[in-house]
């Protein structure tokens, strides 16, 4: 493996600016890496070699003219297959969209192109972002580069695995209940869920409109901040987009990298610990808290009592919104169409198409959501779940009245084995226990690698949550913790990852 593919995006940006390397060389190195290892990892559903190299050549020409569009101009990136890409397939990991090529770009993709980042391809995901392991993809599971027999998290396991396997220095994921942060935790990468409305949702194929949020998947906090600065900001095409000026997240990450946490008050969420949490994960979490104290932070325990109901509320709200959103896949307008024998009615064509096109997990959530929204059950289920959502937001407001950030482990366990929880939906859903509250309240969060669990030598993650619109805080605290660990480890956690069997 070449030095190039192991470099951080920030380091690659510096080398591009200094003229030490070209975007074409960077892009070719990562495409070669994909060719070498993705047969084992299966992080990508589609690789756009020709398009990526053409974009890289244009970036090189701009730099030669002194017209670079920004620091990341020329640094290649991977995009989760839930974001529409003009001229490239967008399947959402589902057979029902197999072969669909959108005629337009999502705003996030438009901003990547405008900033000059060559798009390597589209990454694998749980079908329509429903899952915690990327085993629910219609195109086969993605594997964790740390151990190919284990899951890379979900639903955005493809993006996290691509970064962890050094197939891409940057990736875009989406986070509906933890689908950026939880894969980050189990693959030793950094994952950020921005404030809801801070990154445009236009062109993001909706799972649950009130929960979905696109964000960065990277190797370092600084890389995530630099990418966030590219994709963030107001978009008039998205009615949920926040119309305000955002601070430089790159500056926040650089400020935090000094490791000085003096004056920062950190709240440890008491409800996100205890029985069922892997001992090694909890041990790494306590070490991280101790490091923050050593850096000058004040740490207190904070109770958010409604968080214990977050999982139940989420798995009523999300299926209800998904049931409504997925109704548009009706075999009439786009995507798969299955026509039964004889002279079928439109309803029979629709039924056959949805039966063949949707996987078991999608069907499960459509049924649950339709039931929760049905007459006689709406108030008892969906209405009650929305009330819990309000209580969770109030818990956050109360907590942030006394602390600057809240912290917890990102996920209760390290990566489990492929197939281990596939037939137990409830066990699978519990992986989102720590991440879901942030989506219900719309607040930002980051997962930062914080070591290896003693039991299995696999990565765990440290989650930092901040008030809505205060994304700069998660970058500052995350960068501080990362800097302290980098000094302790002599580099990044990914530098300690075992080589893939295909290397």
UniProtKB/TrEMBL annotation:
The keyword Protein biosynthesis applies. One of its GO terms (cellular component) is glutamyl-tRNA(Gln) amidotransferase complex. Keywords: ATP-binding, Ligase, Nucleotide-binding, Protein biosynthesis, Transferase. It catalyses: L-glutamyl-tRNA(Gln) + L-glutamine + ATP + H2O = L-glutaminyl-tRNA(Gln) + L-glutamate + ADP + phosphate + H(+). Residues 25-474 form the Amidase domain. Gene3D superfamilies: Amidase signature (AS) domain. Belongs to the amidase family. GatA subfamily. This is Glutamyl-tRNA(Gln) amidotransferase subunit A. It comes from Nocardioides ganghwensis.
């Amino acid at each position: 493996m070449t030095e190039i593919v192991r470099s951080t995006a920030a380091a690659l940006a510096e080398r591009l600016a200094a003229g030490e390397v070209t975007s074409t060389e960077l892009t070719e190195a990562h495409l070669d890496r994909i060719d070498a290892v993705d047969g084992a990892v299966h992080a990508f559903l589609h690789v756009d070699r020709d398009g990526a190299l053409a974009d890289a050549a244009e970036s090189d020409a701009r730099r030669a003219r002194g017209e670079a569009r920004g620091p990341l101009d020329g640094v290649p990136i991977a995009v989760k297959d839930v974001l529409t890409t003009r001229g490239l397939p967008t399947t959402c990991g589902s057979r029902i969209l197999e072969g669909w090529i959108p005629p337009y770009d999502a705003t996030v993709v438009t901003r990547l192109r405008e900033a000059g980042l060559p798009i390597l391809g589209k990454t694998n995901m749980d079908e329509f972002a429903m899952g915690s392991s990327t085993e629910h993809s219609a195109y086969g599971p993605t594997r964790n580069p740390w151990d190919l027999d284990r899951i890379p998290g979900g639903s955005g396991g493809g993006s996290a695995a691509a970064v962890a396997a050094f197939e891409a220095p940057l990736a875009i994921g989406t986070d509906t209940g933890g689908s950026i942060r939880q894969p980050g935790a189990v693959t030793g990468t950094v994952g950020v869920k921005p404030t809801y409305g801070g990154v445009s949702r236009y062109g993001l194929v909706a799972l649950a409109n009130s929960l979905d949020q696109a964000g960065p998947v990277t190797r370092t906090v600084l890389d995530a901040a630099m990418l966030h600065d590219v994709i963030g900001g107001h978009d008039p095409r998205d009615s949920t987009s926040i119309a305000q000026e955002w601070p430089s997240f790159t500056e926040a990450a650089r400020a935090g990298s000094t490791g000085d946490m003096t004056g920062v008050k950190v709240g440890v969420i008491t409800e996100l610990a205890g029985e069922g949490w892997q001992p090694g994960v909890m041990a790494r979490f306590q070490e991280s808290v101790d490091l923050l104290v050593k850096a000058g932070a004040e740490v207190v325990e904070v109770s958010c009592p409604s968080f214990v109901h977050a999982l139940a509320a989420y798995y009523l709200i999300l299926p209800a919104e998904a049931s409504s959103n997925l109704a548009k896949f009706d075999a009439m307008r786009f995507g798969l169409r299955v026509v039964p024998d004889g002279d079928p009615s439109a309803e029979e064509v629709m039924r056959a198409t949805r039966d063949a096109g949707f996987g078991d997990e999608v069907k499960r959530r459509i049924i649950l959501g339709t039931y929760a929204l049905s007459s006689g059950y709406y108030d008892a289920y969906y209405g009650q779940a929305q009330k819990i959502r309000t209580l969770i937001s109030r818990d956050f407001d109360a907590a942030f009245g006394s602390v600057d950030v809240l912290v917890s482990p990102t996920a209760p366990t390290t990566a489990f084995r492929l197939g281990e929880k596939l037939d137990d939906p409830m066990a699978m859903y519990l992986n989102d226990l720590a991440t879901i509250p942030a989506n219900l309240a719309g607040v930002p969060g980051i997962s930062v690698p914080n070591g290896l669990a003693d039991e299995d030598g696999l990565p765990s993650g440290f989650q930092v949550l901040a008030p809505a619109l205060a994304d700069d805080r998660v970058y500052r605290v995350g960068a501080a913790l990362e800097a302290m660990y980098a000094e302790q480890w002599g580099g990044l956690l990914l530098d300690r990852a075992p080589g893939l069997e295909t290397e």
